[in-house]
């Protein structure tokens, strides 16, 4: 966990900052600002925000429990401010969120989708799986032709788990 940062459940008033971080990534599909506000209100327990010393968000993960598989956490978006990358922040957020969701909600599987060009995301999730000794299954969830706009890469579903007891560090999770 990078020094000087803390991890918490997001609050509704973090929504605008999460939208800005997603926009500035220039990689993520940018959703409406409204959706980030709503996410912080309704899915705070399955999401996480990293704050710098001033309390401002510098990274986040949004996720939800799949309605038909409530022990599966679908990780929707992960983003870290450019200035904070490469310090282990995304890995710390993912481990802490998995630990919290495991303890509080019984989560033992994580799903996410990754586009084939996203090496950092691929590394983030496969490293998480390796640290937890969890199997990884991959299959195309949404092919390029599923998207209404042209040029969208396929979204490959990574299914990680089941894992027994996610190892998170509660000392870093102020939620
Ligand atoms: C993907 C992203 C969240 C990673 O954040 P980060 O805090 O820099 O990641 P970490 O430092 O925790 O690194 C996690 C793992 O990914 C690897 N990694 C990080 N950046 C990488 C890159 N550009 N290329 C290859 N591997 C990379 C790290 O080496 C680490 O692996 P390790 O544990 O085996 O050493 C960040 O680059 C980002 O916000 N990208 C834009 C948004 C995005 O693509 N999100 C993911 C899709 S939802």
UniProtKB/TrEMBL annotation:
Q: Which residues cross the membrane?
A: none
The UniProt keyword set, sorted, is:
Acyltransferase, Transferase
Task: Please give one Gene Ontology molecular function term for this protein.
Answer: diaminobutyrate acetyltransferase activity
Question: PROSITE patterns from the xrefs?
Answer: GNAT
> Which residue numbers delimit the N-acetyltransferase domain?
5-160
Look up the record and name the pathway of this protein. Amine and polyamine biosynthesis; ectoine biosynthesis; L-ectoine from L-aspartate 4-semialdehyde: step 2/3
Enzyme Commission number: 2.3.1.178
Database matches in InterPro entries: Acyl_CoA_acyltransferase, Ectoine_EctA, GNAT_dom
Q: Name one Pfam family in it.
A: Acetyltransf_1
According to its UniProt record, which protein family does this protein belong to? Answer: Belongs to the acetyltransferase family. EctA subfamily.
User: Any idea what this protein is called?
Assistant: L-2,4-diaminobutyric acid acetyltransferase
Organism, as annotated: Streptomyces boetiae
Q: What is the lineage of its organism?
A: Bacteria, Bacillati, Actinomycetota, Actinomycetes, Kitasatosporales
């Amino acid at each position: 966990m990078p020094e000087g940062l803390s991890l918490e459940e997001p609050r509704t008033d973090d929504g605008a900052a999460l939208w800005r971080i997603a926009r500035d990534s220039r990689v993520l599909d940018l959703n409406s600002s409204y959706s980030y506000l709503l996410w912080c209100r309704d899915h705070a327990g399955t999401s996480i925000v990293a704050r710098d010393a001033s309390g401002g968000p510098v990274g986040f993960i949004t996720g939800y429990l799949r309605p038909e598989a409530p022990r599966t956490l679908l990780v929707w978006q992960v983003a870290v401010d450019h200035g904070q990358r490469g310090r282990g922040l995304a890995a710390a957020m993912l481990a802490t969120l998995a630990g919290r969701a495991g303890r509080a909600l019984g989560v033992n599987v994580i799903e996410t989708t990754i586009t084939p060009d996203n090496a950092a995301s691929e590394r983030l999730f496969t490293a998480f799986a390796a640290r937890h000794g969890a199997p990884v299954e991959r299959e195309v969830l949404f092919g390029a032709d599923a998207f209404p706009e042209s040029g969208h890469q396929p979204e490959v579903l990574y299914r990680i788990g089941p894992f027994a007891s996610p190892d998170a560090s509660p000392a870093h999770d102020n939620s």
